[in-house]
Amino acid sequence: MTGRGADGISPADAAVAGGQVTGEVLTGDTLAGAAREAPGEHDASRADTRTKDNRAWFLVLPVVVSVAFTAVIPLMTVVNFSVQDIFSPTDRIFVGLDWFRDVARDPEVRAAFLRTLLFSAQVLLLEIPLGVALAVSMPRRGPWASAALVVVALPLLIPWNVVGTIWQIFARGDIGLGGWAVNTIPGVDFNYTLDSTDAWITVLLMDVWHWTPLVALLAYAGLRSIPDPYFQAAQIDGASGWATFRHIQLPRLRGVLTIAILLRFMDSFMIYTEPFVVTGGGPGNATSFLSILLSKIAVGQFDLGPAGAFSLLYFLIVQIVSYVFFTVLTRTGR
Amino acid sequence: MLEWMVWTPPTAAVFAGLALLLAGMAVWARLSPPVARRGFLRIETDRGDRLYIGLISAAAVLTGWIAVTDLSMWLALACALLVALVIGIWG
Amino acid sequence: MARAAGPPAAATGRRPPAVAATARRQLPWARTVFWLYAATLMLPLLWMFGMSIRPNEDILGGFSLIPQRVTFDNYQTFFTDSVWYSSYLNSIVYTSMNAVMSLVVALPAAYAFSRFRFAGDKHLFFWLLTNRMAPPAVFLLPFFQIYQSVGLFDTHLGVAVAHMLFNVPLAVWILEGFMSGIPREIDETAAIDGYSLPRFFIRIFLPMIRSAIGVTAFFCFMFSWVELLIARTITSVNAKPIAATMTRTVSAAGVDWGLLAAAGVLTIIPGAVVIWFVRNYIAKGFALGRV
């Protein structure tokens, strides 16, 4: 993680390095044990030595004010929307929790919720192993290391709507290389604008194309932080490539992979731009995720009440996941 | 100016209550600084953390209730408060 | 400072000593698999570029791997049609404003979070995170209302302020990550030397973390550049972003694929230009400074 506690050489590292110095040959068991018992890297338990000073509030005041204007006031307004039937600012009726009941029981909303969950699950299942595999096979030194980094990172820096555009073109059967190849070589009739399975696959593939690099870069950063004595010890043991990966690299990736999983979950859970550009939520409702449905209700139909209730329920889920994320980031090791 | 915020008395009361709660927590923290400890949630929490977890869990209870049953929301509110209380004391 | 300026090896505290290449032996075939993947990764991109240099009749006329006729008409259209180039400029204007505003607000706050303990600091830090994580769709309706009522609707400033919603928390988190890597002894030494806090911050601290500031500015710029939903909702004509223009290319004659592809290529350029300089920080930026 950050400078917080990441600097110290953990006791386990020191033990391995020490074993190296004294020429003691580590057995496979002790080696794996050392790798498993290396909690030091993501340990936030270092005593908090920051000065206690409440005047620091003056430094954070601008942030509080700006975020209050862009987040708190809108959120209060959403709460107000959610309990009223609004025809105009002066002509409105208090309806209590009716909108919440409507939205929570709306089959379309429930379907979108399940669809979004399924999408997030598939994204994680595909991207995490692929990203780790990619990071392990990336060249780590030499002139090619930087080139590989740039190539892998490129999709991340492409604007999301352009990612949509790229795949909109690429996956088309008539003008796109991808769609054309699928239609011609195996002879499958692939058309993402008409077939809902094809649309789903296109959006999923697009997300894998777009975001696997993030998992790869995070895992790559994790791999680079593994001290060399680990590898030397593995070499002395005559460990195979796979054993080195399984017992040395993978355990040390736990911290970065937790971050990767949470980030990918959050981002895929609120995905909007890419599927909107490619499929617009269609065909039918096949790729209508929560954000797409919500913005349809909010901006398309301008239903203030249901959109407000929907927003709050959505926001509640985000709060819960963010809290898990935050707890993992700041408290692991305690 | 503030007309577009379409305030109603109940939501205003809820936000005023939240503001009071925060102010109360701040005063309490001044009187006796919070101590972090570990309860049945298995993570180290101080009183502010437990308040937050409690409120979020209460909201989750209310949401689940409204999505599933037609029973009175007052009953749901009682359950939610109970959950928040349990987390606040033993969490 | 080396911590902030160096590559990831330095960011984790120490540089690995030179060891025999075999010590970091990789799984067999790793390189081949990797470069195959990289090639696959580039295919859709190259395909879009190929589309952008073909005339529309060729695109729709029949499938061909290699462009039959190469033309730059699509790019010419982009730069002569005011709807296109002005929305491109709009995007640049509000993203730049947003990056500057977010940084100015976030720098002191990040310093406070990394150096001081104060009442509610943890909770404030978490609250910032929830705003970064919140789906923009949640804020759509009130934004529409607020910006109309305060007269910021369809202005560059309006979009820049709206994007502070997620960029200020992002900037605070990233900068805090970098700043926590700088030893506190520097602050103490400067205080003993008689530097006041503002003077120390501007004269010593900011120059020390300038690469971190550059990286943060880049990420603010990027997240604002790629955001579509909010920017589209609170603009109509004068501040319309390029992303919104790109989603409305369907005309009576169908989609203008060549022009759309050309716009896509041009929109990638800001990211492609700086990618070499930020390559070691991309993971850190996306992970909110936590890697």
Layout of SSEs?
The complex is a heterotrimer of chains A (334), B (91) and C (291).
Chain A: H1 3-6, H2 11-21, H3 28-36, E1 51-52, H4 57-82, E2 84-86, E3 92-94, H5 98-105, H6 107-137, H7 143-153, H8 160-170, H9 177-184, H10 196-224, H11 228-237, H12 241-252, H13 254-269, H14 273-278, H15 290-300, H16 304-331
Antiparallel strand pairs in A: 2-3
Helix pairs in contact in A: 2-11, 3-12, 4-16, 5-16, 6-10, 6-13, 10-13, 13-16, 15-16
Chain B: H1 9-31, E1 37-38, E2 44-45, H2 47-68, H3 73-90
Antiparallel strand pairs in B: 1-2
Helix pairs in contact in B: 2-3
Chain C: H1 2-5, H2 8-11, H3 30-52, H4 56-61, H5 73-80, H6 82-115, E1 116-117, H7 121-133, H8 140-149, H9 156-179, H10 185-192, H11 197-208, H12 210-226, H13 229-233, H14 242-246, E2 250-251, E3 254-255, H15 257-278, H16 282-286
Antiparallel strand pairs in C: 2-3
Detailed description of the structure:
The complex is a heterotrimer of chains A (334), B (91) and C (291). Chain A has a domain of 233 residues: Orthogonal Bundle (MetI-like fold). Chain A has 16 helices and 3 strands. In chain A, β2 and β3 form a beta hairpin. Chain A is globular and about 80 Å long. The N terminus of chain A is likely disordered. With 91 residues, chain B is mainly α. Chain B has 2 domains: 29 residues; 56 residues. Chain B has a two-stranded antiparallel sheet. In chain B, a hairpin with a 5-residue loop joins β1 and β2. In chain B, α2 runs antiparallel to α3. The longest helix of chain B has 23 residues. The model of chain B has no long low-confidence stretch (mean pLDDT 88). In chain C, strands 2-3 form a two-stranded antiparallel ribbon. The radius of gyration of chain C is 23 Å and the shape is globular.
CATH superfamily of the domain at 99-331 in chain A: MetI-like
Total beta-strand segments of chain B? 2
Q: State the strand order across the main sheet of chain B.
A: 1-2
- Let me know the largest β-sheet of chain A: 2 strands, antiparallel
pLDDT average of chain A, as an integer? 80
Question: Which descriptor suits the 3D outline of chain B?
Answer: flat
Named at the architecture level, the CATH assignment of the domain at 99-331 in chain A is Orthogonal Bundle
Tally of alpha and pi helices of chain B? 3
Q: Supply the helix-strand structural class of chain A.
A: mainly alpha
CATH topology group of the domain at 99-331 in chain A? MetI-like fold
Tell me the major beta sheet of chain B: 2 strands, antiparallel
How many H/I helices of chain A?
A: 16
Instruction: Look at the helices and sheets of chain B and give the structural class.
Output: mainly alpha
Helix content of chain B: 55-70%
Widest β-sheet, arrangement of strands of chain A = 2-3
β content of chain A, as a range?
under 5%
